[in-house]
Structures are given as structure tokens and as C-alpha cells.
Amino acid sequence: MKALAVIFLAIHLLSIAGIVVLLLMQGGKAIKTMPKGITHAGLTALIAGVAMVGIRQAQHHQNAVDYPVYNYGIITGKLVVLIIFLIIAFKNAKATTISRATWISLLGLIVINIGLAGSLK
Fold first, then answer.
1. How high is the pLDDT of residue 66?
2. How far apart are CA 116 and CA 118, in angstroms?
3. Residues forming a β-bridge with 98
4. What are the Cα distances from residue 87, in Å, to 49, 79, 84?
5. Are 34 and 80 in contact (CB under 8 A)?
6. Single pTM value for the model
7. What SS3 string covers the chain?
């Protein structure tokens, strides 16, 4: 079970890193476009995150001392931020260009998500 948790953690981290890289690649461009893989990376991060919470809950049920449950307030915050990110990403997925405000919003939401993850124990 621990190996499965580590695998989902790696998938989650790589997905978030992929989103950051895809967004930062647009940073120097005058005309910004929505990167094609951003919605896929966001959905992958969402699924891996939900799987990690489910695995931790099962681990906690077996051994509460070694595997405390996550702070569900922070998990809920991460979920809401990622859902807002995905809504914006899907609304602009077919657009030929995106505004600077949209790009900054997406980047800001991911930075908030990373900050919330840093506060998890």
C-alpha cells in the first residue's frame, strides 16, 4: 500500500510540475496560447490527489499512529483551487490565444495549490 501511495505522489508531483512548466513556457511570448497538455495534466493531478487521500484513509484505518489523516480543510482548499483551474483551462482550451490575465490567473492558482501542499503534514 505504501508503494502505491508513493507512485500516486510521484504522478501528482509530475503533473503539477508539468502544469508549471507549460505555463512558464508561455511567459516570454507576446501572444500566449493555451498549452495543449494543461487540461490533461490538471486532470491527472486531480485523480492522483484523490487516490492519495483514499490510500491515506485506508492506511490510517489499519495503523492510525503511523498514518495520521490529512487536514481535510487543506485538502478541500486544494480541490477547490484545482477545480477552478480546470474550469478556466477547459473554457480556454479551444481558444487560439489567451489573455495575460488568464495566464496569470492559471499560474497564480497553481502557485496557491503548491503553497497549500506545503502546509500538509
1. 85
2. 5
3. 32
4. 17, 12, 5
5. no
6. 0.90
7. CHHHHHHHHHHHHHHHHHHHHHHHCCCCCCCECCCCCHHHHHHHHHHHHHHHHHHHHHHHHHCCCCCCCCCHHHHHHHHHHHHHHHHHHHHCCCCCCECHHHHHHHHHHHHHHHHHHHCCC
CA dihedral 38, 7, 64, 74 (to 10 degrees): -10
Angle at 45 between CA 92 and CA 97, to 5 degrees: 15
Instruction: For the chain of 121 residues, list the mean pLDDT of each consecutive stretch of 10.
Output: 93 96 92 92 96 92 86 93 96 92 96 91 64
d(CA 104, CA 108): 6
* Residue 114 structural domain: 2-118
pLDDT of residue 54: 92
Q: Please give the tally of structural domains in the chain.
A: 1
C-alpha 88 chain-centroid distance? 14
* Backbone phi, psi, residue 77, to 5°: -60, -45
